[in-house]
Amino acid sequence: MELRVGGRFRLGRKIGSGSFGDIYLGENIVTHEEVAIKLECVKTKHPQLHIEAKLYKLMNGGIGIPQQIHKTGDQVHQINPPEKCNP
């Protein structure tokens, strides 16, 4: 079964994880661009991803900063090219 995020991104295999969520390889189904998608469990007691998204927007354009943030309803999905995940 194919999983999609925000109706625009195809979710692939898990490529990493951290304190605030898991990172998956994905694809923009419109442009076919390869992306990394960070997801946070909706049952998280103290959600952090929405705060992280705000910080990334403030730092937009900086070296190593994700180029795009995609939000779906109350959920925030951090979308960025995979090469941005590794310094």
UniProtKB/TrEMBL annotation:
Q: Tell me the ranges covered by the Protein kinase domain, including all copies.
A: 9-87
Q: Is the Glycoprotein keyword given for this protein?
A: no
Q: Membrane-crossing residues? A: none
Residue positions binding ATP = K38
Gene3D superfamilies, alphabetized: Phosphorylase Kinase, domain 1 (3.30.200.20)
> Which molecular function terms from Gene Ontology are attached?
ATP binding; protein kinase activity
Assigned keywords, A-Z:
ATP-binding, Kinase, Nucleotide-binding, Transferase
Can the keyword Magnesium be found in this entry's annotation? no
By what name is this protein known?
A: Casein kinase I isoform epsilon
**Organism of derivation:** Ditylenchus destructor
